[in-house]
Amino acid sequence: MQPFTYVKARTVADAVRAMADGGPGTRFLAGGTTLFDLMKLNVETPISVVDVTGLKELGGIDTGRSSELVFGALARMSDVATDPHIVAEYRALSESLWRAASQQLRNMATLGGNLLQRTRCAYFRGGEPFPCNKRKPGSGCAAQGGIDRGHALLGGSDACIAVYPGDLAIALVAFDAKIDVLGLHGQRTITVDKLHREPGVTPNIETTLDPGELILRIRVPKTRMGRASTYHKIRDRESYAFALASAAVALDMNGDTVRAARIAVGGLATRPWRAHVAEQVLTGKRLTPQNAREAGDAALQGAKPGHDNGFRIELGARTVADALTIAKQRA
Ligand SMILES: Cc1cc2nc3c(=O)[nH]c(=O)nc-3n(C[C@H](O)[C@H](O)[C@H](O)COP(=O)(O)OP(=O)(O)OC[C@H]3O[C@@H](n4cnc5c(N)ncnc54)[C@H](O)[C@@H]3O)c2cc1C
Ligand code: SF4
Fold it and tell me: pTM (2 decimals)?
């Protein structure tokens, strides 16, 4: 085990200061289900850990405001997944959470930590001797030329094709959610769509957060489209598995005709992937099986298959089409 310093933050300002004092390689600790996992694998070796679990400012679920839902960064996945208002009015959000991980993990894991979970690429998690530009910049990418069945078809680069594994962020991107973050230089707001980066030549830099910035809360604009929404997740087994392909969709329907659609795909790209072109394909059209499939194909536009993952282009298109059909039945 690598020794590390443990700091329990008393206020959010404390937490941000402790991160700066700890220096590079200091990590916030929330539920610990990603961080401790990677520390046990020696993939993450923080010199200092700042525990934020006691910060009341980061808790809470507020669905009572007129314009937005507000989730504290420490809100538990299980609490948000089962909140009656979310279950009834924002089904894609609730489903993205309860279709993730296991009940034990969801009871422990927080929304802030969920957004910042790291890839499940086996070469990244496996450590040495596998080359991995994300874990060790400049070392290469074992997935390219290796087993890439679960790797990304969208948003990859020569340096990295690791999939962004989370479910919640896909639904949040479809709902145009934002996060408030606090750093040494104050507070700012980022859309969840802009939080995760494509790997480019620096796959080790995964988000647009400045070093040491703390996620305070997640804000989701209220919309009537939440009721006609779903998070559809296809995986190797029925539960407790990451997505091979997923889709978060929300619809505004006028009878059979689509007034507006929101579509984001997961499990297929290096970051949560909003499919604006697919949304345009549907707007003003009847939502027939054929049009749903056309939207599915549009969502996968530009997908680049590797060695073993080409089958997920068809799977992804069908997942989007099926999600649209499910959401339509809820309109
Ligand atoms: C076996 C297993 C199966 C899983 N299956 C799924 C799945 O199917 N779908 C899915 O979406 N997820 C899945 N997960 C991932 C799980 O949902 C995440 O591990 C969890 O949500 C992370 O939350 P946490 O509070 O435990 O984060 P932590 O482990 O505490 O933190 C994760 C990262 O976020 C940082 N962090 C935490 N909170 C903040 C904050 N407020 N501000 C800034 N940085 C912060 C930490 O420093 C760390 O780098 C699975 C995990 C496991 C172990
Ligand atoms: S895909 Fe990315 S995370 Fe996986 S081995 Fe290649 S560089 Fe590492």
Answer: 0.98
Find the 9 Cα to ligand 2 centroid distance in Å: 33
CA distance 232 to 137: 34
Q: Among residues of the chain, what percentage have pLDDT more than 70?
A: 100
Q: For ligand 2, atom 2, which residue shows the shortest CA distance?
A: 160
- Strand ranges inside the chain, DSSP E: 5-8, 26-29, 48-51, 61-62, 68-72, 178-183, 186-191, 214-221, 229-234, 245-254, 257-266, 273-274
Ligand 2 within 6 A of 119 CB?
yes
Candidate from 28, 44, 271 with most ligand 1 atoms within 8 A of CB, to mutate: 28
pLDDT-based confidence at 91, cuts 50/70/90? very high
What average pLDDT score do residues 68-72 get? 98
Cβ atoms of 203 and 133 within 8 Å: the answer is yes
Q: Are the CB atoms for 170 and 272 separated by under 8 Å?
A: yes
Task: Give the Cα separation of 29 and 52 in Å (integer).
Answer: 6
Beta-strand relationship, 214-221 and 68-72: antiparallel
Ligand in nearest proximity to the CA of 143:
2
